[in-house]
Amino acid sequence: MHIAVLATNTDDSDFASRHPRDVEKFRALMHGVRPEWKITAFDLPKGEFPVTLQGFDGALIGGSPSSVHDEDAWIERLFGLVRAGFAAGVPLVGACFGHQAIAKALGGTVGPNPDGFVLGTAETEVIAAAPWMEPVSRFRLAAAHGEQVTGLPPGAEIVGRSDGCPAAAYRIGDKVFATQFHPEMTPGFLAALVEEFAPKFPPEVGTAARASLALQAEGPRFAKWIARFFEANRD
């Protein structure tokens, strides 16, 4: 299997430089469950784009502090890549910004979180499990977002919801699988992120975020679902 990782993170801060980049996080996540897979990475904000997604067995679009409503050229170019890939039947996975970008590119809507910025460990209640997921009622992933999908694109159905986020995970048939959260963030990185971000928000955000860390994120579980999702498209 050959997967394209489309990195969208624009954070070049000192904090970011002290930690693995998103490409390394996603590579470690997927190699943790499928070590033999080939991962080819593209740094979209730096202008690194695949000519096409055809030829890949799937594409994974990560998170970013950018908004899908920003007018940066790379974001519009990403929307075009999503539309072309979807039309060609290339399976797409989205995480946080990627979740929102796929939705917006395919006709959905994205808006601000009604309850403000979400930070820490978030629990998703499974509404309708996808075939590549084992039967579970809930799962937990890292969260860091101020916007969310407010309207699903045509053909999408909700997989899971979380507090204040009705479309926390969705799918479009067997061609799109997306989550508002961050499977690539390890518990250690999330704890560091909380300490870095908490001072930027009202005190209650940091208090809730630190308390949520007692619930450990389940990135490796979600990685298995991503792998099975891509593999289902090869069967």
Verbal overview:
This protein is α/β, with parallel strands linked by helices. Helix content is 31%, strand content 27%. It has one domain (2-232): Class I glutamine amidotransferase (GATase) domain (Rossmann fold, 3-Layer(aba) Sandwich), CATH 3.40.50. It has seven helices and eleven strands. Strand 10 (165-172) and strand 11 form a beta hairpin. It is globular, with a radius of gyration of 16 Å.
What is shown here, in short?
This protein is α/β, with parallel strands linked by helices and 235 residues long. It has helices spanning 14-17, 22-31, 73-87, 97-105, 187-197, 203-212, 219-232, and strands at residues 2-7, 38-43, 58-61, 92-95, 109-112, 118-126, 138-145, 147-151, 157-162, 165-172, 176-179. The strands form two sheets. Strands 2-1-3-4-11-10-9-6-7 form a nine-stranded mixed β-sheet, sandwiched between helices. Strands 5-8 form a two-stranded antiparallel sheet.
* CATH architecture verdict: 3-Layer(aba) Sandwich
Mean pLDDT: 95
Shape designation: globular
The overall strand count is 11
Any idea of the CATH class? Alpha Beta
Give the tally of structural domains. Answer: 1
Poorly predicted sequence stretches spanning 5 or more consecutive residues: none
Q: How is the biggest beta sheet arranged? A: 9 strands, mixed
Percent in helix: 25-40%
* Overall SS class: alpha/beta
**Side-by-side strand order of the widest sheet:** 2-1-3-4-11-10-9-6-7
